[in-house]
Predict the structure.
Amino acid sequence: MLGSEQLEELVSLINAMDRATLTEQFRAYPTRFPLDLTDEFLQTASIDRLRHIFLALCLQNQRMPRCAA
């Protein structure tokens, strides 16, 4: 379980990510379930939507991303 400090760090980290970094994270992030996001979706979805989805992914997997923004 991520602690409150880790949650704040996670939100700040994801908020600082640009589209390229988020795309890399979606490709490399280890999940417990298959993640199928098309290149078209990653290129056309709003940056806020991508950040929201990635935050949900991190919370579901209870794991911080491996790289910093």
Q: What stands out?
A: The radius of gyration is 11 Å.
